[in-house]
Amino acid sequence: MEHLKGKTAIVTGASRGIGEATARFLASQGVKVLLAARSAQVIETLAAEICANGGEASAFACDVSDHSAVLALVAQAKRRFARLDILVNNAGLIDPIARIADSSPEAWGHCLDVNVKGVYHGLHYAIPVMLEQGGGTIINLSSGAANSSLEGWSHYCASKAAVARLTGVAQKEYAADGLRVIGLSPGTVATDMQSSIKASGINPVSRLAPSSHISPEWVAQAIAYLCGPDGDEFAGGDFSLKTSEGRQRVGLPLADRLPA
Ligand code: NJP
Q1: 152: β partners
Q2: Contact in structure between 179 and 135 (CB atoms under 8 Å)
Q3: pLDDT tens, 93-103?
Q4: Superfamily of the domain at 2-250
Q5: How close is the Cα of 90 to the center of ligand 1, in Å?
Q6: Is the CB of 90 within 6 Å of ligand 1?
Q7: Second label for 116, Cα 20 to 30 Å away, from 94, 159, 168, 195?
Q8: Å from CA of 91 to ligand 1 middle
Q9: Residue 156 a catalytic site member
Q10: How far apart are the first and last CA of the chain?
């Protein structure tokens, strides 16, 4: 992936799962990566490991629901790398899973604060930096839940539908200035999030066989693919890894040919 060499990126939610895999993969392709999450110790250890393996990475503790923390995160990327080419708005949560009447208004609101406002905060602070340098790519982690209604996931479905609209609006507002804002709907991925979903037993996704989930490394490859020129046609929309066409484009095994 020659297009990635020498680029700089922020990956939010980089302490585990898709974010961790993305930080590792981008760094392996020559991207200087700033890892962000609330678990400071975990991302510091990861960044050190990436550096020990010949990559360039550093860590910045950040709660994306706090706009001042995201402002500081973007400022740190500029200070450290002088520019910001890629922002991966990946931090997200689904807990606690509960039907609407059983849910906690505080927890429901917190999910929106992280999944929606966290993405907005990333866009809000990264866009001016990218505009100043003449371009950049922002990948927003979306979900099939943006377009479907699943029991127990009112907070999550509402948040991912909002993220899809944020992606579209941001692309319309800044496409002419060289920015690309692209949604990525990964399908089900073998991370802690799917473990929580399985434990809930509340809807059909919780009953999926763990073997049907794809690896976070595949999602990382898709993110790297979208950061290249091929991402252009998906700007403003959601690229889906659930379809055979999507997987074929990234060079991943097709949906109907997953290893058992
Ligand atoms: O989630 P998980 P995934 N501020 O739980 C961080 C979407 N997606 O990798 O802060 C900053 O393993 C948390 O770090 P920490 C999904 O909606 C997934 O599966 O240290 N960071 C951790 O690094 C989400 O947007 C599936 O606790 C915060 C990370 O977020 C993205 O993919 C399917 C934070 C969560 O790691 C990554 O999900 C789909 C905060 N306030 C979409 N709160 C799937 N897994 O099947 C949490 O369609 N984090």
Answers
A1: none
A2: yes
A3: 999 999 999 99
A4: NAD(P)-binding Rossmann-like Domain (3.40.50.720)
A5: 6
A6: yes
A7: 195
A8: 4
A9: yes
A10: 29
pLDDT digits (tens, 9 = 90+) for 36-75: 999 999 999 999 999 999 999 999 999 999 999 999 999 9
Q: 3-class DSSP state for residue 163?
A: helix
Atom 40 of ligand 1, residue of closest alpha carbon:
63
- Domain range summary for the chain, segments of one domain joined by +: 2-250
pTM: 0.97
Query: Strands, DSSP E only, in the chain?
Result: 8-12, 32-37, 56-61, 86-89, 136-141, 179-185, 238-240
Closest by CA to 107, choosing from 122, 115, 95, 125, is: 95
Give me the catalytic one of 125, 156, 174, 225. Answer: 156
The answer to whether 72 touches 45, Cβ cutoff 8 Å, is no
Ligand 1 midpoint to CA 167 (Å): 18
